[in-house]
Amino acid sequence: MSNSIAGKTAIVTGAANGIGLAVARHFLEKGANVMVADMDEEGLEAEFGAEAQGEGPLRMFAGDLREKLTIANLLSATVDAFNRIDILVNASRQVAQTEKPLTVGEDGVEAMLQQNLITSLRMSQMTAKRMIAQTGTDGQPTGGSIVNLTSIAGQRALSDLMGYSIACAALDQLTRSLAAVLAPKNIRVNGVAVASVMSASLQSALRDHPEWHDRIVAATPLGRIASATEVAETVRFLSSDASSFITGQILPVDGGRSILDPVSVPAH
Fold it and tell me: How many angstroms separate the CA atoms of 102 and 179, rounded?
């Protein structure tokens, strides 16, 4: 099986920056048709505006994907441009905010759930319906692939990131549940759980807190911070036929960080 995505059509949300931007760029380099989507219209314009003109492999859509009508318009725009949808990458995530469990407000947790869980749920539901209705040249359903960007925070108790951890854990379960439901339709659903990735937001945080760099590296067996492109490569694998028998899995891309027990063996 090939890990090629050439000629396939992908929607990548959260594409104005960070991992979503890296995924979109990587997919374009590998020959996919890509609809980039984000609520940050200025960011999309800055990154893709000059390229999204004409009849090429790139289109751009700005809007608030927390709204069902906006999602419907995004799907219609994608089908109008490329006739089909083969891949959905849910990379629109709200960045984790440090907070104390006993003081974080309900609004903060609700915002995390809305952006990181509900938006991905609605995007997946509505996109899957489009995928189910599609057929190939032989008249047979073609299926598709959905990849959710999540975090190892969903598998660990990170008390200072409670809202984010809850949302990621829920997204992991959503991934597994949708995978089971959509498997008979040949639509695979998987997740990529990241740890620290050298995105623009982390670079900014490290400028304010340079001591964090050594702490992150020390907690990572591979001894470095991932690049966004490394995450994008994994997303491409899960989107391609090379992973045709993989569904319902949450694949950590964390340099081994999630395998460590933070409690060392006591001295005897």
Answer: 34
